[in-house]
Amino acid sequence: MRMFFDIFGQTLRTLWAHKLRSFLTMFGIAWGVGSLLLLVGLGEGFRSGNRRELSQMGENIMFIFPAKVPAQPGSTAGGRPYFLTYRDWQAIHDEAKTVGNSAPVINRQDIRAVSQYANTNGQTFGVTPNYNQIRTLPIAAGRWISEQDEAERRQVAVVGHEMRKSMFPGRPALGESILLNGLRFEVIGYLDVIGKEETNNGTNQRVFIPFSTMHEFFPLKDEKLPDDAVSFINYRPKEKEQHLLAKEEVRRVVARNHDFDYKLEDAFEDWDTVQSEQTVGKIFDAMNMFLGSVGLVTLALGGIGIINIMLVAVTERTKEIGLRRALGATRATIMTQFFLEGAFLTLISGAIGILVSGGFMAALGTLPSPEGFDPPKLVPWSAAVAIAALSIAGTVAGLYPARKAAMLEPVEALRKE
Fold first, then answer.
1. Is the domain of 210 the same as that of 195?
2. Are residues 380 and 351 part of one domain?
3. How many domains does the chain have?
4. Within this chain, do residues 67 and 106 fall inside the same structural domain, yes or no?
């Protein structure tokens, strides 16, 4: 143990004697480790932020919108428009076996909402009672639209967080009335904030009323529209892995009802958040691989720098090595000293890189994050890769020069100028 501390003390004295060289070498290793962890952490921040944004809508949400049937496959000109209807939704509900839940939506943005305190133009959504089982709609107070509200076409409303603040500033909203284009609706509930309060999430600006009431008083306005037209249909697959099957089943139903081939990809306007999440995940996986590779290359360059500095140290200290060998130092002792010097440089530099990058990411976590981005965090697998790379670099950087030093013959070493 005493020999180990003697060698360790000698290592520190040697490094201190060449402060600038040691600092530059350690900086290269620390920069490689820190950049690896920081770049991967930033990529994971983007990934988790995107996942969080999607989860604010709901889990595994899928949409289908009105579209055009192209005159020819691949053509965007001269298409025949079709409109989604309540009948389409009913057929999807009855026939699509892989669809777990679905809801038709009538959406209008031209309905004037007035309370006794304020007035505004928000989005008015006519939805069925199961809509809150598909989308994320946390009730802050009151209740959601019921089956009885839908069956009796009641004039009741649930308002979003920002809509409530605008319509009833600093006042209670439950049980109060609002006028939607002059018709009186009772506020039966309001939503908690969705997303960050400072971001402009559309759900926070909406008024929700029963679908049957919306269809009776505020149907979609256009001469070409069928009487039971809807703005879009929301649905969820029974299982996340069935999202492609669910999309195909929904497309089959819509294509049959509107007399075109469901294989015409250009005939559909839909959005699959499951597929979007998977696509974004692949992008971030590729980004992490690229950023990780950049960090590893930087780390490798730092390791090469340590090998170089240790080889220089062997050359500069040839006489010292010869003298120590002549006084009885074994090859194992010489090898241990130079190995410890290389390993010490590597591990201390790596620890500094991990601490600095971790502290920097923690500091970023205290700042407001842009929409769709979470603060970077230390990713365990990237830290494991950095530690493994450091171990390899430290072993190589220490063993090769150490072996070269240990193999020097005492007489030959003492002769060198």
1. yes
2. yes
3. 2
4. yes
Assess contact for 48 and 401: CB atoms under 8 A: no
Residuewise pLDDT in 10s, the chain (417 residues): 566 666 667 667 766 777 777 777 777 777 777 777 887 777 777 777 766 776 666 788 899 999 998 877 666 666 788 999 999 999 999 999 999 999 999 999 889 999 988 888 778 999 999 999 999 889 999 999 999 999 999 999 999 998 999 899 888 899 999 999 999 999 999 999 887 654 567 788 899 999 999 999 999 987 788 889 999 999 999 998 999 999 999 999 999 999 998 888 889 999 988 888 788 778 777 877 777 677 677 767 766 776 777 666 666 666 666 666 677 777 777 777 767 776 777 777 778 888 888 888 888 777 766 665 677 777 777 777 776 776 676 666 666 666 666 676 666 655 555
Q: Is 320 exposed, middle or buried (0-12, 13-18, 19+ CB in 10 A)?
A: middle
| Domain final position from 273, 306, 340 | 273
Query: Structure pTM?
Result: 0.69
